[in-house]
Design goal:
With 316 residues, this protein is α/β, with parallel strands linked by helices. It contains 11 helices and 14 strands. Helix content is 43%, strand content 14%. The structure holds serine (SER).
């Protein structure tokens, strides 16, 4: 059997960092190459400093390590993207094209490309948003993900590149920090709570958004990538759900364990982005096709987040 060699692009990011560790457990550390624009420092497996906008540099890395799978996690997220839309479009699309092209040219076995709830806009059903829904995103990030999903589907149908994708909701984890997203408050809030600091939330208290705890997000990704190709009916990107909550609800969940925690609300430009997104997601296609089932609800996540962050801050 051919040995899988996996390249993770964006391995220094919020999801990429945790996914790299998880892949190294499954495929052995030496078979998982962590790459990022910035120097990741020494790790327990191969590391490359790589700009995914440079197709020649990408090709070199793929050849050097005999890569046969790519997980392309690098992207500019929703809030940062709005500050320089052309730059966000350029980075998100050009890096994806480079990944799709090298995968086609070198006949790679599998490609993973994350999409997002940001593909939806106000015209989409707000509750239990279906898999096949009108996609009119209001952020450049969302536009790049809709386009990316369609290019993934195109490369699959036209060239047979086995590209797989999930529409991640907001992802919450203690291992790494998010950067530039609209759902980032749901990570920040736990860090403030553990440090006994009051938190000023940039979304209003009743803004409900779909969210997923990191262990579920990583397991979903690995399960999708392990599923037999014949099971996968969606080649754009699968809706994926875990839980939905508002800032007031996550604050209440924290207060059950930390009664003195204080939160205030000062919505900024990210409120309009959040308002354009669904409050909950119908992920029945993922459940049906490859058996997706989330494990963590809000209180289970709060318990685990606070436990791990307390250990981290004590050790610091
Ligand atoms: N967490 C992302 C963001 O807020 C959504 O994909 O941009």
């Amino acid at each position: 059997m051919k040995q899988d060699r996996i390249l993770v692009i964006g391995a220094g990011g919020q999801i990429g960092a945790v996914l790299t560790d998880a892949l190294r457990e499954v495929y052995q550390p030496d078979n998982v190459i962590a790459s990022d624009l910035r120097d990741l420092g020494p790790q327990n497996g191969p590391v490359e400093t790589l700009n995914a906008l440079d197709p020649f540099a990408l090709e070199e890395v793929v050849k050097k390590w005999k890569v046969n799978q790519i997980y392309h996690l690098a992207a500019i997220l929703s809030a940062t993207g709005e500050k320089d839309p052309m730059k966000a479009w350029d980075i998100n699309m050009r890096s994806l094209f480079n990944v799709l092209e090298i995968s086609r040219q070198r006949n790679l076995a599998k490609v993973y490309f994350p999409s997002s709830i940001a593909v939806f806009g106000r015209e989409a059903a707000h509750l239990n948003t279906p898999q096949y829904e009108v996609l009119i995103p209001e952020t450049v990030y969302g536009i790049s993900k809709v386009a990316g999903e369609n290019w993934a589907n195109y490369y699959y149908r036209r060239y047979g590149v086995d590209v797989r994708s999930l529409r991640y909701p907001g992802i919450i984890g203690y291992q790494s920090m998010p950067g530039g997203g609209t759902t980032d408050y749901a990570v920040d809030i736990y860090h403030y709570a553990v440090q006994s600091k009051p938190y000023e939330c940039f979304l209003s208290q009743d803004t409900s958004l779909p969210m997923l705890y990191m262990p579920d997000a990583i397991r979903a990704t690995l399960e999708l990538m392990e599923a037999p190709a014949s099971r996968l009916s969606v080649r754009t990107s699968y809706n994926l759900a875990g839980m939905s909550f508002t800032p007031a609800e996550v604050a209440a969940s924290i207060k059950k364990r930390m009664p003195n925690f204080k939160i205030t609300y000062k919505p900024d430009f990210r409120q309009a982005i959040a308002d354009s997104w669904p409050a909950s997601i119908d992920d029945s296609a993922a459940r049906h096709d490859w058996g997706w089932k989330p494990e963590f609800d809000l209180d289970a996540m709060t318990k685990d987040m606070l436990h791990h962050l307390e250990l981290q801050y004590q050790a610091a």
